[in-house]
Amino acid sequence: MNMSKNAPTTDQKTDTRLTHAGRDPASFHGFVNPPVVHASTVLFPDTASMAPGASRYVYGRRGTPTTEALEDAVSELEGAAGTKLATSGLNAITLACLSCLKAGDHFLVVDTAYGPTRHLCETLLARLRVETEYYDPTLNGDIRRLFRDTTAAVFTEAPGSLSFEMQDIPAVAAAAREIGAMVLMDNTWATPVYFRPLDHGVDLSIQAGTKYIVGHSDVMIGTVAASERAWPQLQDTHGAMGLHVGPDDVYLALRGLRTLSVRLERHASNALAVADWLAERPQVAAIRYPARADDPGHALWKRDFSGASGLFAFDFVPSVTKAQALAFLDALKLFGLGYSWGGFESLAIPVRLQGIRTATAPDNTRQSVRLHIGLEDPRDIIADLAQALETALG
To answer: Where do the record's region annotations for Disordered lie (predicted)?
Structure first.
C-alpha cells in the first residue's frame, strides 16, 4: 500500500502506529478508513496487465485493499517483513506450522501450548510424518539438548496456556538459530503492543486476532507475521492453502486494532486489581499471573514484556472440591461462562491442570479457574467474585 503523509514512521510510538498504520485516505478520496471490498474477479484493461506481476490486484483470494490494510498494519506493529491473515487463531497456527515443516522433520513444541495446537500436532502433522516432541518451558537455552539433525522448528508460547508459565524467548530463539531452526510463537496473550516476538529472534509471530485485536467477541481471525527469512515460505504456503478472510471480518479487525492499546491498558489494570484482591482471599491458594511480583515468571515478564493482558488463573485451596468450584462459577453474575477471551466482557472457565501436559507433570491437584477480566468497573467485578465465593464456599 502506498502510504499517505499520515503514515507512521519508524520513530513513532505504538499508540501512534495503531492509529495510522494500514491507512491511506488519499487513495480512497480522503475517507479515513479503507473500503470494505467484496470481490472475487478482478478485471484487467488488456492482456498485458494479466501477466504475472503486472497488476497490483489479480483475484480476490490473493488480496484486496481491505485485506492489505490489515496486513500492513499488523506488519507495522510487529516489525515484520510481511503478514498473512487466517480464518482463526488455530488456522493461523496451522498456516505457520505448515510453512516451515515437512515430512521427516522434528518439531519441538512447548508443553504448555494451547490445547488445539497439541491436537494439530498429534493429528494432521503426525499424518504428514512430522514428529512432535513436547518440552519443558523452563528449559530455555537448555533446549539445545533436545535438538536433532532433523529439528526444523521450535514452537513457543509465553505465558503458557492455562498454567501461565513464562519462557525465556530470546534464549530459546538464540539456541534455535544455532541449528537454523525456525522459531514460532503464539503471542496472543501480550499482542505486539506489549511484546514484539520478531525483535527477540522469533521468525513467525502468531496471534488469534479473535481475542484482543478484534476486542468485541464477534469475529474469528488470525494473523501470522514473518521475519525476512520466514516470509517467502509463509507467502507461498498461504497462497497454496487458498486462505482468505471475509472483508467484513477484516474491517472489524481493523476497527478493533485502533483501540487495542487503550483497551489493553484497562484490561491489565482491572486484572491486576482483581488478582491482588483474590490473592488475599482465604479460599485462594495461588494466582497465576506473570505481572504479579510473586509469580515465578515475573522476572522474565518484567525483562521482556512492557505490559500484561486481562487473562490469568487462580487455584483454590486444597479443601475446595470440584463441586464447590463449579458452584462458584455458576454463582457468578457479571462473568460469562464461555471459551475464548479478549472481548470487552469478563469470562470464566474451570481449569484442570492434571493430565494436560506430557513433558512436565504438574503436581497441582487443586481446583483452578481461568478468568478474563473485561472492561467493567473493577469494583463491580470484585463484588461479583465476592458474592460467588460466599455463595459457593461460605
So the answer is: 1-25
Give the class (CATH, top level) of 260-393.
Answer: alpha beta
- Domain range 14-258, its CATH number among 3.40.640.10, 3.40.50.1820, 3.30.1330.40, 3.30.230.10: 3.40.640.10
Distance set, CA 111 to CA 43, 160, 330 (Å):
49, 8, 30
What is the per-residue pLDDT across 167-201, written as a single tens digit (0 to 9) for each? 999 999 999 999 999 999 999 999 999 999 999 99
d(CA 161, CA 94): 17
pTM: 0.92
194 among known catalytic residues = no
Query: Interior CA angle at 168 toward 352 and 135, to 5°?
Result: 50
- Collapse the DSSP code of 224 into the 3-class scheme (helix H, G, I; strand E, B; otherwise coil) and give the result: strand
Alpha carbons 38 and 227: distance in angstroms, whole number: 30
Identified catalytic residue from 24, 114, 289, 384: 114
- Please choose, from the candidates 159, 188, 185, the residue with its C-alpha nearest in 3D space to the C-alpha of residue 290: 159
Active site residue 114: yes
333 counts as catalytic? no
Is 211 an annotated catalytic residue? yes
Closest CA to 73 of 188, 204, 223: 223
Which residue of the set 23, 118, 196, 211 is catalytic?
Answer: 211
Q: State the Cα torsion 374-378-379-382 to the nearest 10°.
A: 70
**What distance in Å separates the CA atoms of residue 227 and residue 177, rounded to the nearest whole number?**
13
The domain spans of the chain are: 14-258, 260-393
* Contact status, residue 275 vs residue 292, Cβ threshold 8 Å: yes
List 56, 59, 61, 148, catalytic entry: 61
Q: Which of 72, 186, 203, 315 is catalytic?
A: 186
Provide the grid cell at 31.
Answer: 475517507
* DSSP alpha helix (H) spans, the chain: 14-20, 65-78, 89-98, 115-122, 124-127, 169-178, 191-194, 231-241, 247-258, 260-279, 298-304, 322-331, 378-393
Q: Distance between CA 56 and CA 170 in Å, rounded? A: 37
Query: pLDDT tens across 92-143, in order?
Result: 999 999 999 999 999 999 999 999 999 999 999 999 999 999 999 999 999 9
Task: Determine the Cα–Cα distance for residues 306 and 41; give it in Å rounded to an integer.
Answer: 44
